[in-house]
Write a structure and sequence with these properties.
The protein contains 8 helices and 19 strands. It has about 300 residues and is α+β, with helices and mostly antiparallel strands. The protein folds into 3 domains: about 90 residues, Uridine Diphospho-n-acetylenolpyruvylglucosamine Reductase, domain 2, CATH 3.30.43.10; about 110 residues, Uridine Diphospho-n-acetylenolpyruvylglucosamine Reductase, domain 3 (2-Layer Sandwich), CATH 3.30.465.10; about 80 residues, UDP-N-acetylenolpyruvoylglucosamine reductase, C-terminal domain (Uridine Diphospho-n-acetylenolpyruvylglucosamine Reductase, domain 1, Alpha-Beta Complex), CATH 3.90.78. Bound molecules: flavin-adenine dinucleotide (FAD).
Length: about 300
């Protein structure tokens, strides 16, 4: 069946963009994950629609990913089709009225650089987040006092029924690291960002400052998915984990970073099961010591055992 669908998909997309038995470790910033049955890289809305129709015909599930920077993929991989919206689907257009129109696969760093060069302010907070705009909108990614919801004008989505809808910001139901997208299983196709005119030098300097802060505080030298846990109300996950004595806690190659306890890192050959085991121990120890329940921020997909 898997071979059949790969062949059908090759009839719909350029052959090079249909990858059967693709290791997900190559598509996640954790550098972890077993093989996906098939991974495709559509280059247009029409191709995305065709892939989804094909999954329906074969009765196979599909999962959309961006840059894989918030994903923990199971060691046994993913049954079905992974739709990666990346470089192939990453156009940006600037309008006269301080808005940027961006396709979902565009990296935030690239969008932020475009905004800066056009003298548009508002996106500096996100310039160091290593995801696509699609992933960032779905997660309502945030940092340094900013969140995606603050700069969204509208989001174009594809519904599971195949309808394309333009949702204004107030219909996105943004919350802390969430939006309507997960609940409705939408695919984000395009995003219109509402920015403001700013000073090019100030924008550049703020982006530099924030990226330096990241390099200083975060263990960017190791693969990870960023903050492993959501911030519990009234606390900081990293601080609780440190105070629970878990800095450096390690199972195999999965480790609580000593530099920033909010990050679980891959020291080299960590498996998804090891990362999960570290996360479970962290949740257990923080609960026991502080009666605070940590919730994962990282999205788990695929088969773990
Ligand atoms: C070093 C590091 C630092 C980080 N710092 C931050 C930070 O400061 N703030 C922060 O919020 N996050 C941070 N993250 C986490 C991550 O970068 C963000 O959550 C990012 O927005 C995820 O985007 P992505 O394209 O990588 O999404 P993925 O990881 O590929 O996917 C994440 C989720 O979004 C869904 N998704 C992706 N694209 C689409 C789409 N087009 N339509 C519908 N659903 C989609 C996926 O199905 C999945 O559920 C960090 C990660 C790393 C590795």
């Amino acid at each position: 069946m898997e071979e059949d669908i790969s062949q059908t998909l090759r009839g719909l997309l350029d052959e090079k963009r249909v990858l059967p038995d693709e290791p997900m470790s190559l598509h996640t910033t954790f550098c972890i994950g077993g093989k996906a049955d098939v991974l495709v890289k559509p280059a247009s809305v029409t191709e995305i629609e065709a892939v989804i129709r094909c999954c329906g015909e074969y009765a196979l599930p599909y999962y959309v990913i961006g840059n894989g920077s918030n994903l923990l993929v199971g060691d046994k991989g993913i049954r079905g089709v992974v739709i990666e919206l990346g470089n192939e689907f990453a156009q940006i257009e600037a309008a006269e009225d301080d808005t940027l129109w961006v396709q979902a696969g565009c990296l935030l760093s690239k969008v932020a650089n475009t905004a800066w060069k056009k003298g548009l302010t508002g996106l500096e907070f996100a310039s160091g987040i290593p995801g696509t705009i699609g992933g960032a909108v779905k997660m309502n990614a945030g940092a340094y006092g900013g969140e995606m919801k603050d700069i969204i004008d509208s989001v174009t989505v594809l519904t599971p029924e195949g309808e394309i809808m333009i949702l204004p910001q107030d219909r996105m139901e943004f919350g802390y690291r969430k939006s309507i997208v997960s609940e409705k299983n939408y695919i984000i196709l395009e995003v219109r960002l509402q920015l403001r005119k700013g000073d090019v030098k100030k924008i550049a300097s703020r982006m530099r400052e924030l990226n330096e802060a990241r390099r200083e505080k975060q263990p960017l030298e190791y693969p990870s998915a960023g903050s492993t846990f959501k911030r519990p109300e009234g606390h900081f996950a990293g601080k609780l984990i440190m105070e629970a004595g878990l800095a450096g806690f390690r199972i195999g190659d999965a480790q609580v970073s000593e530099k920033h306890c909010g990050f679980v890192i891959n020291r080299g050959q960590a498996t998804a099961s090891e990362i999960q085991a570290v996360m479970q121990e962290v949740i257990h120890r923080v609960q026991e010591q502080f009666q605070v329940t940590l919730e994962p921020e990282v999205c788990k997909i695929g088969e773990f055992f």
